[in-house]
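ok here's the first one, seq then struct tokens
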Amino acid sequence: MIKVVIFDIDNTLYSFDAAHQVAFAALLDYAQRELGIAPDEFRRLHKEMNQELKGRMGSCAAIHNRLIRYQNILERLGKPVGHALRMSDLYWNTLLDAMQPSPGAAETMQRLKARGLKLGAGTDMTARMQFVKLERLGLLPYIDFLVSSEEAQAEKPAPALFDLCVEKAGVRPAECLFVGDNLEKDVHGAQAAGLQALWYRPQDVSKGTAEPFVTALSQLPGLLAKGQTAD
């Protein structure tokens, strides 16, 4: 029996891809206007720096730190590093303004809480930014606990993050349901740690899979009521 539902945040409780597109466009405009960096050049540098920092820092929450990313790009170009702080603030503020909760997210959490389920969030990224996102989305009041990769010191699908989710949930792993959009990181990662998992797939519904999935978060309470998860 499921007693705790744990949600991924990015591309599950809101569309990171859509919000990122708006935020990155603002960043490209800033880089060209203030630093003379053409959009294609910035995209290339951004991609290269992502890979370089992953190689340097490994799999940890710091790889999501936009300030470090932009700082290193500016250092490489010999540009004033003071722009990195403004670029980071611009990116995140624009992304936060562009976010919209996934359809039915708040109502789904309300229904689950009304049934006495505990709700958590299990997410890569630094803790503060994920708290800010949940607050801006209007979902933070429903969350009983949060595990970030910053706290777990490991990124999904590492067992450490899921193990800490279970510890905070206070129940057996099999009594936890993890809901997320990423098949490898969220679904297979949770299953490997002994949790049940549900794949959130609002797009590409025709893709065949043996994994249980929903195309809308609003389907979740009904599935749990019927016991149609991975029991």
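and now the second one, same deal
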Amino acid sequence: MKDLIEYIAKSLVNTPDDVVVTEETDPENGTLLKLKVAEEDKGRIIGKQGRIAQAMRTLIRVKAAKAGTKASLEIL
């Protein structure tokens, strides 16, 4: 899942070198992915009315459901 988010984010931003994805595992809440991008690229990641961010969260939830776990995405 980390690779998927990193690939999508690097494809969208102007400075792909600033994209950092960290993964934290919690037994109760599953996996938490934290996406950090450059300040000027946050708008590109979030998208109009949050559509791109919501689409990435949906992809993560679907992939986690197939694996039988939970996952969420936090954009920093």
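notes on #2: The mean pLDDT is 93. Residues 3 and 18 are 15 Å apart (CA to CA).
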